[in-house]
């Protein structure tokens, strides 16, 4: 039994500590029941119109396609306390794809969104877009947003910016891809989450300003730079200005002869900025 003080009101709650492998089963059942019993206003997105349409999740889908019928699924491994990977399903629906590019899971995105629990209660809602660093949000959110494409914008004569043709989607994921045993205002422990998101635009991120985009600091090639630490200094490469710990900043080793090609002086297949011998 875990006793936790709530930060917002200093009250004390008790909850049972659970394993990822046990909780994901319970969450899977709850999510599938939710998806099978709800739909959304998909007909509003069936036209080619680029007007701004909000996703509305609707109950009683007896005469409509269910969310379950329309959702795609991505399996995402989450390591438990013993280092064993536990598969978690991210369900997602792309209501409108967007016309430009997908952000990576570590980019900075300009989004409007609403977060809900499966009981329908809203715990967060941003009507006007805000910038979010995807490295600072829960995994289910960043994985979901990376499946959307951004839109285009025009600047009006009054200086305001108007976005169109942007991606719109809705994502459903278990607590293991969310806050799991932690609680936040409006989000109890072990809560599956539902997010509807509009992706206006995004910026490619280089968190350590070393000249290598953060997503390209994925040394082990698993699609994610989280945990990649080539020099073993306990600082992930995407936050490390000297990736091989040789005393020369990465940005100064990338392309010393300025020919537009990343340098590999000894031709061993390891670029100089990752090779402490060069």
Q: Care to describe what's here?
A:
This protein is of the alpha+beta class and 278 residues long. It has two domains: 2-203, Chitinase A, domain 3, CATH 3.10.50.40; 206-278, no CATH class. 12% of the residues lie in helices and 29% in strands. The radius of gyration is 22 Å and the shape is globular. It starts with a strand and ends in a 25-residue tail after the last helix. The model is unreliable at 1-7 (pLDDT under 50).
Number of domains: 2
Quote the average pLDDT: 90
The CATH class of the largest domain, by name, is: Alpha Beta
Secondary-structure-based class equals: alpha+beta
Number of strands: 12
State the helix count. 4
- Helix share of residues? 10-25%
Q: So what's the oligomer here?
A: single chain
Radius of gyration from the CA trace?
22 Å
Query: Strand count, sense and closure of the main sheet?
Result: 6 strands, antiparallel
* Net shape: globular
Low-confidence stretches: 1-7
What is the end-to-end distance? 53 Å
Could you say what the CATH topology of the largest domain is called?
A: Chitinase A, domain 3
Strand content: 25-35%
Pattern of helices and strands: EEHEEHEEEEHEEEEH
Q: How are the strands of the biggest sheet laid out side by side?
A: 5-6-11-12-7-8
Tell me the CATH architecture of the largest domain: Roll
Task: Summarize the helices and strands and which ones pair or pack.
Layout: E1 2-5, E2 12-15, H1 20-37, E3 38-40, E4 57-59, H2 67-70, E5 72-79, E6 85-96, E7 108-117, E8 122-133, H3 139-145, E9 152-155, E10 161-164, E11 167-173, E12 193-203, H4 250-253
Antiparallel strand pairs: 1-2, 3-4, 5-6, 6-11, 7-8, 7-12, 9-10, 11-12
